[in-house]
Design brief:
33 strands, 3 domains
Length: 614
């Protein structure tokens, strides 16, 4: 690291692991600062406006017997990308190693009071800049000076007004063991401290927070908000603090579709409401650990889910207001197909009534054929512990980011939905056994297109599939329970979506022959299991859908309903027969019949049916 010698204003290189005693300057940059290169010619540097700060800092340090100072404007060679990267990644520790940090407030006027007041301080630009956050937290001690280099109080002496301005606990500001305490503060709360701070470069919104979270990152100027995404990924890889996902983004105008997003926030301002958030250490909550991959966050956990009977259940939703704070309100869930991911944290006390067990914060998730997305990112859900309903733990993948193209594709699929009561391009099945003496086993091909955790049945969906084929297969096996005469039977349920002369979803249930083969389309095609479990082979079997005239469909409108409803089919299973009955999709207070065509009926009479060998 480079240190400035206060006696001759020369820069000297020192080992950052064992530097001499030095003071460090915290300030806001002006238009005419002195750079590392400027310090090579002191006569020229002295004419720059920023040299007055350097001179004032050196005189102050020398008066207290300190020979060296570190100032970010002139002690980093910013023409060297390697040195810049090392300096930014080390800056938090450099501030922590300093004997004292001098916070020079150029816009703090000189008054007769030795201690600055909140009214004096809150007008200062220093409290709005991103880099000064770590400069407030990292040093052993901070002393504030006004525009005339008069002392106006230390961090400990000013901890109460500083806490009110920065929303950082006065306990944290007053203690000397901040490194230990900081790691115990929820991630979302630490990010909230930066929510209203600005930086000149978008990337610096992330880079100025590296030390606060104890992470290191390469600097990639030009990636803009991508740097903040990388910061969150680095934080997620270091621990399992789920408050990282408790962000809330501002609500968009009603005509802009933005109901879906990835798991990570795009800007620190989305954490503005998280001040005072608390982690919950409850052994009964599903444990969560995860791995960050290029496809998103992968974890094995039990999701909380509202069932169909909860459609009209009132939940507490926490919305962000325009001022960046939370407002609690009640709403009726209209998401029988969604899931909740519990975040193991709770909102500050002012956002819920005093209770022995305050509600747990959660986010809504929507399952698609490629994994989960966050739904309704403009709000959090406060879940009472008595109302939780958990799935069995299972591996899931949640997309961390959602590109504009992906978002547009999915939003276009969902744009006709106004009440969000159902998933378009989805078929729900009930597998009903006529007797309890029969065991049911189901396998789904391809499995990522199926959601078999529904309380109301299993669901096949292609909510964000844009290319054919839009169909899939369920392999259903029934057998006797142990202790009775052996019996087993297998059937294959084919289902999909298409738009032929107005028809939408279709399904076909076929029993397996004694030799393990299956006869399809009224005996026109015969194939074995290897074909049935291969969606590409089935694509050839059912014909190239474009040639058949089958095109992707965003849902089938019921005659008496103005929004799409999820078609529900009841599959009756017994030892002697299988049947599929078109069911009813419940929408609010009334039922709407959904036509689900048998595949054989759909393709009958078409001029072209391709043939595929068995």
């Amino acid at each position: 690291m480079w240190l400035l010698n206060c006696s001759n204003y020369r820069l000297e290189s020192h080992d950052s692991t064992s530097p001499p005693k030095y003071w460090i300057l915290s300030h806001t940059w002006g238009a005419d600062e002195v750079t590392f290169q400027d310090m090579q010619d002191l006569k020229a540097a002295a004419f720059k406006e920023g040299f007055q700060k350097i001179e004032g800092m050196c005189k102050l340090a020398s008066a207290h017997g300190i020979q060296y100072v570190w100032i970010d404007t002139c002690c980093i060679d910013k023409t060297s990308s390697a040195e810049l990267s090392e300096s930014i990644n080390s800056m938090f520790s450099w501030y922590g190693q300093a004997e004292l940090c001098i916070a020079f407030l150029a816009d703090l006027a000189t008054t007769g009071s030795p201690l600055a007041t909140k009214a004096d301080l809150e007008k200062c630009r220093w409290f709005t800049r991103g880099w000064t956050l770590q400069e407030l937290l990292a040093p052993v001690e901070v002393e504030f000076y006004d525009c005339s280099w008069n002392p106006r109080g230390s961090r400990k002496e000013l901890c109460l007004p500083l806490s009110e301005i920065t929303q950082i606990s006065s306990h944290i500001l007053a203690t000397h063991a901040r490194d230990t305490i900081l790691q115990k503060v929820p991630v979302a709360t630490r990010l909230s401290w930066a929510a209203n701070r600005q930086t000149t470069r978008d990337e610096d919104k992330a880079y100025c927070l590296l030390g606060i979270f104890g992470v290191h990152m390469p600097l990639l100027y030009g990636e803009r908000n991508g740097a903040f995404i990388r910061l969150q990924e680095a934080i997620a890889q270091k621990g399992n603090d789920m408050s990282l996902f408790a962000w809330v983004r501002p609500r968009s105008p009603w005509w802009i579709q933005n109901e879906l997003s990835g798991l990570l926030a795009s800007d620190p301002s989305h954490f503005a409401h998280c001040t005072g958030m608390e982690r919950i250490d409850a052994p009964l909550l599903p444990p969560v650990s995860w791995t960050m991959t290029n496809a998103g966050l992968e974890t094995t956990t039990a999701l909380d889910r509202p069932g169909d009977e909860d459609v009209n259940t009132e939940y507490t939703q926490i919305l962000r207001t325009g001022e960046g704070v939370l407002q609690s309100m009640s709403f009726h869930s209209s998401l029988p197909w969604s899931y909740r991911l519990l975040l193991h944290c709770r909102a500050p006390e002012q956002h819920h009534a005093p209770s022995v067990e305050p509600p747990v914060l959660a986010i809504w998730l929507c399952k698609t054929n490629t994994g989960f997305l966050r739904y309704r990112p403009t709000a959090l859900c406060a879940v009472q512990r008595s109302a939780m309903k958990f799935d069995e733990p299972r591996p899931i993948r949640i997309a961390t980011i959602l590109s504009e193209q992906e978002s547009s594709t999915i939003e276009a699929t969902l744009q006709s939905i106004t009440s969000w009561t159902v998933v378009p391009n989805a078929l729900r099945f009930h597998f009903n056994l006529e007797t309890r003496d029969i065991r049911l086993d189901c396998k789904y091909h391809p499995p990522h297109l199926w959601d078999n955790e529904r309380l109301s049945g299993v669901e096949f969906m292609t909510v964000n599939a844009t290319n054919n084929p839009q169909f899939s297969v369920a392999e259903i096996s029934i057998s006797n329970l142990p202790g009775s005469e052996p019996f087993s039977r297998t059937c294959w349920l084919f289902c999909g979506f298409g738009a032929i002369v107005g028809y939408g979803p279709w399904a076909e249930l076929v029993c397996e022959e004694a030799d393990g083969s299956v006869s399809l389309l009224g005996g026109q095609h015969r194939c074995n299991r290897s074909v049935l479990t291969n969606p590409f082979a089935l694509f050839g079997l059912f014909g190239k859908l474009n040639e058949l005239g089958i095109t992707p469909n965003t849902g089938h409108l019921a005659p008496d309903c103005t929004v799409p409803c999820t078609p529900t089919l009841s599959v009756q299973l017994s030892a002697s027969e299988f049947t599929v009955d078109g069911g009813y999709a419940l929408r609010r207070a009334h039922e709407s019949t959904i036509k689900v065509r048998r595949l054989l009926d759909v393709v009958q009479g078409l001029p072209y049916l391709p043939t595929v060998g068995s």
